[in-house]
Amino acid sequence: MLSSKHFFLLPALLTLVAIILFPLLFTVRVSFSSWDVFQSGLDFIGGSNYVRVFADDRFWQSLQRLSLLSIISVSLQYTLGFALALAVWKQVRGGRLLRVLFLIPMMTTPVVMSVIWRTVFHESLGPVNDILSAFGVGPVPWLSSATGAFISVLIVEVWQWTPFMFLLLLAGLVSLPKEPYLAAAIDGAGTWRTFWQVTFPLMAPITIGALIIRLIEASKIMDTVYVLTSGGPGTATETSSYYIYIRGLRDFQIGYSAALSLVYLVIMIISLTIIAKLLLRTLVGKDE
Amino acid sequence: MIKISKFIGPATLLALAVAAATPAMAKDYTQFGIEKDLPGTCSYEATDAKDYSGRSLNVITHAIPVIGEPTALHAEQFAALTGAEVNVVHVPFGDLFQRIMIPFQSDQNAYDVLFYASLWIGDFNRFLEPVPQKYIDSTGMSDVTDSFTGVATWNGEMIQYPMDGDRHYLKYRTDIFDNAEVQAKFLADTGSALTVPETWEDYNKVAAYFNDRDWDGDGELNYGSAEVAKRDDLMFSAFISRAAPYAKHPDVKGGFFFDLETMEPLINSPGFVRGLQLFVDAQKSFPPGGNNFGLGDEIFSFGGGQTLMSYSWDDAYVQANQKDSRIRNMVAAAPLPGAGEVWNRDTGTWDTFATPNRAPYMTWGWSSAVSQMSEEKEMAFDFLCFFANEANAKNDLQIGRFGVNPYRNEHLDVDFWKGQGWEDKTAESYVSTLSDMEESQNRVFDLRVPGVSQFMSSMANGVAEAMAGQKSAQDALDGVAKEWAEITERIGKDRLRAAYANVVKLEDNEG
Question: Helix, strand, or coil here: B156?
Fold first, then answer.
């Protein structure tokens, strides 16, 4: 039964409807229309757009590419972020300055940084090949070969988002209880053993959270690809979100891109739920 | 004491008499950054006489500087002259189409004046206000070349306001091509004379010879060719330039991209495949990273003296000839290379041409228009007429970053370009190349139909796949043709045919 106290929930509920439910429901409705450059408005064409999605090889290839890119980049970010967090966890000289320096990449705008990285990787005018040539290496086709472009996108992603991992993991390390470490020291455990048997298990909940947050973010990668490679060479770095952008905003296939977005959303929800469960089972040892 | 009032009457009469006897002094408008006001329908003086105080105009245009900067400049000038409030919105190229299209589709009167890529006319035409006769009869408009009048016309009606003229042509280094020592060495090494490439095969051969050598003696390696090869960065235009002479047969009418009768895509026909194969082969002569070059990189590479040849819009040519350029007056223009063999789709054979077939590409340029929904149509057209008045057009042509290129007959004047400090060959080759394109009977225009972005995006993807070695040229273009057929199906063959007929008219010199 509704009472006056329920009305206090109204602002939050209205906000929820306005910013989440309405756009989502509108996207669902648009996905069943043929809204295109020559057909404006919301007609109804049934599930044709969804049938088209399932036959769209380019979309599925972009999804595979995205999965590979996300898994590699997030793994690297986690490893490097953890290493950096461990490095500044204990009191080190200049630790405070290092913490600020580590955070700079995360605080920069991805598009701006991608433009700078594109200049850095420029094969005839950029500094990287210049430096490598001094050692007799190169020129390396950073952006003009499929492998090079994939690695370049990976490098920029890792550079930009490792600080985020670092920040979360450092916060976790700082909040760890001291007792297990005292017990480990009394038992004579060395650094390596203490890490694997104390630090790592204690950090498991934070690790899972950090990995899932970063996987969600990494799966939306668009700006870096847009600026750095435009999805090329060929389709070598075309990710799902970039492909949806092309179909929706460049080709103006609004109905079809809505269907692509929803299929993509469902796939992401299912796969990230499975990944979260697997991580819980592996790292914490229980399915909860 | 003599009263002053006694003098007022005679003094006034004297002043009026002097004013009547003296020729009218032209008002000075140099504070607006022009050399002088030029006579014309929408000159500074004529615009100054209008009063739009208390009224406002909303304009959408490209980001600064290309077209965005002259729009902002002329909007400010128009506001100062007429008292109007002119609000200019600048949008990056990737967002411009949808920022214009969404208000159109949702019946919102968001912008009175629009600046956009002229090839979008196929999508926008139903939302645009035809140019009124008095502007068609204006001095500036009557001098617009026939090609660009055609580009602004849809179903026999002018609906775009011309303010730019774009084409693709070849640019090359004269200090190398005209150098007797280099010519002798080239002849000795290759067995053929060094001449400006007549065909794309010649182009690739010359580019390969000069690739990876320090031929300008500055201690840095130079390369053969700079081309716009980055997917989604106008590469589709580069491909059309390369494929056109192989696929556009001068004796075959009725469509270059499609067969107008059946609306079957021709994009995977042997002519296009040959063009793509040569594009793929040319990558060997690109600078490092050249197959990821967008337009900006191409301008920088050729304009900066890194490469021997290039082809695209005027920007690289203008950049190369700027006062601070180290290769100023060392470049010349020439028609795009042609083809010795041209695919004849009527007979299904390759026809051999003793003189290479040329198919100049009047590639999309910027254009402008007034929205049908605008409540300030007269002021909007006055603004466009002022934007493109004689003084502004000449001023804008001289500033490379503005992106305004010759579109009136008076712009194709060698003396005007020599006046910019260009030497004889640089100016003459530029003007003759552009003028000859106006005369050509075998030109190619953009696919100005509804859904052009979908067609071009699909083509760019296929070409990029072939360039990256993911597919053969034939397989890549077969994939594009399949997608084009699907897009055609979705748009509707009849709707597409009706639109494409406008393009075919231009290509077949019927309109």
Answer: coil
